[in-house]
Amino acid sequence: MVEIKTDTALETMREAGRIVANALAAVRAAAAVGLRLRELDEAARAVLTTAGARSPFLGYRPSFAPVPFPAVICASVNDAVAHGIPDGYRLRDGDLVSIDCGAELDGWTGDAAISFTVGTPRPADLELIAATQRALDAGIAAATVGHRIGDISHAISTVARKADCGMPADFGGHGIGRRMHEDPHLPNHGRPGRGFPLRHGLTLAVEPMLMAGGRNDYRTDRDGWTLRTIDGSRAAHIEHTIAITEDGPRILTLP
Predict the structure, then answer these.
(1) Going by fewer Cβ within 10 Å, which terminus of the chain is more open, N or C?
(2) Which pLDDT tens digit goes with each residue over 21-63?
(3) Other Cβ atoms within 10 Å of 212 Cβ, number
(4) What is the DSSP letter of 242?
């Protein structure tokens, strides 16, 4: 069931989204060669705690997961596409890092992700991140009243194909609001003019995940969570929570 949010709910989601943005900024500022991934999680936890927000990630257990998620961020490095568990891994010079974070405030949720490099970047990684950002921007631009979910999917996949990148076939964006994952599902592959109609008050997490090797298949680590590229190529993941409005798409997870 798809819930259309009131304008009052959108304002609360905007505050939750602001907390997410601040947590991601804190993680990005803390990231440095030699820092452990669990220390990045601690930086995000501090922001959520100070803001009085709850993490929708911590303890989350979807049907595919063997154990509840143990952290407030997903930290995915290099060939990890998404859902990486922040552990004792120390960041290395040239690592490509994707961080996903959520926050729940007063019963409403925000969800966003960033990708960045640590230390000396590889030019190919910078282009991969830029392509992922272009895919996100294109998807958001298509999120207008009168369009359909497939128009967002098609915009994202068009950019990914042009960049010769793959995207994990079974994962994409989603509705969001009272819970982190709500209907409708938002695939990163799709045909224009298909799917749920976009209306004022519909809220979506738009999240392209691009894999530099060009394949759409992936593998899952033994932890049951971390998704990795099949060929060892790098991946990037960037996400915003947005609201469909009569005035155009509104990004709710900005600072």
Answers:
(1) N
(2) 999 999 999 999 999 999 999 999 999 999 999 999 999 999 9
(3) 23
(4) E
> What local confidence, expressed as pLDDT, does residue 170 receive?
87
Strand 235-237 with 209-211, pairing: antiparallel
The two three-digit tokens of residue 162, written as one number:
């042009």
The length of the chain in residues reads 255
pLDDT band at 169 (very low <50, low <70, confident <90, very high): confident
Nearby residues of 21 by Cβ (< 8 Å), 6 or more positions away:
112, 253, 254, 255
Are 110 and 13 contacting, i.e. CB atoms less than 8 angstroms apart? yes
User: Which token pair is 115?
Assistant: 């990708």
**How many angstroms separate the CA atoms of 157 and 163, rounded?**
10
Query: What is the average pLDDT across 161-173?
Result: 96
Q: Give 139's DSSP letter.
A: H
Of 144, 176, 142, 148, nearest in space to 247 by CA: 144
Contact, 56 vs 180, CB < 8 A?
A: yes
Mark 157-176 as b/e (b = at least 16 C-beta within 10 Å). Answer: bbbbeebebbbbeebbbbbb
CA distance 96 to 175: 27
